[in-house]
Amino acid sequence: MQSVMQFIVSVFTAASLHSADLPPAGLPLPHPVPGGVALVDLGNGTEAPQATFNGKAVMVRKDATQNHWQAVVGIPLKQAPGEAFVAAGGQHYPFAIRDKAYPEQHLTVKNKHVNPNEEQLNRIRSEFARMGKVYTSFTDGQPWQPMMWPAEGPLSSAFGLKRFFNGEQRNPHSGLDIAAPAGSNIRAPSAGTVVLTGDFYFNGNSVFLDHGHGLISMFCHMQGITVQEGDQVQAGDLLGTVGATGRATGPHLHWTVSLNNARINPLLMLAHPGEAEFSQRFTATAGAEHE
Length: 291
Fold this sequence. Notes:
Elements: H1 4-11, E1 37-41, E2 51-53, E3 56-57, E4 59-63, E5 68-74, E6 82-88, E7 91-97, E8 104-107, H2 118-135, E9 155-157, E10 162-165, E11 168-169, E12 176-178, E13 185-187, E14 192-200, E15 204-212, E16 215-225, E17 232-233, E18 238-242, E19 253-259, E20 262-264, H3 275-283
Parallel strand pairs: 8-10
Antiparallel strand pairs: 1-5, 2-3, 2-6, 4-5, 6-7, 9-12, 10-11, 12-19, 13-18, 14-15, 14-17, 15-16, 16-18, 16-19, 19-20
């Protein structure tokens, strides 16, 4: 099985961890694979074009190096590799999506979280509808800010893992798991608005942040929540504490990042802390079993 550290190395095959080789601050790392991000040049028009991918609005930013408009596109984990395009101003801007083989992870959890009954299914459907409204929203927001780590601790499950619960295949892992102790702080990775909180069947106590322009963060399995819907937060503000609520095998933070309703690898949105910190985070608890 591919190790967590090998997974991280594969994410950065297109760019060294040395700062001179990284994209300009303020942009995510380009990684045009399912679950990744594509940066698509839209030219140098006088106004920001409205752009879409798969019929969904996408973030558009100015590229500081060329002074061109650029679409920042989240690529769904189920997207087929091959040629794709961004539509903007009546034109199609093509880009290539590479294939990506994600490793497997096998977990043992309580049966109620694998085969819920009808009452539980009704609850799950209702919760999915509420979450779907958040993920499909597209609001104005502050200029792009690279994200910070929301919790202190090593990673226990990488993004994109093919998940098997009690031997049954389920959806791939759509976030990062940070193995932080119960009760430790969870902080906003960048500025945003708290748009949804609650106790969800699978995710437990959760907080959703809207960072604007289709960029959403979700924080799951929390022990306690210290914010309310409608709150405006800045990077580093306290959101709550780490727990093991919902479908979890131990205390940790599950952090999902969604861009134009596509779950993407949060690593691509982080400020670049340097190789030493990556190495420390990814080697400490590789293979730990968390949801």
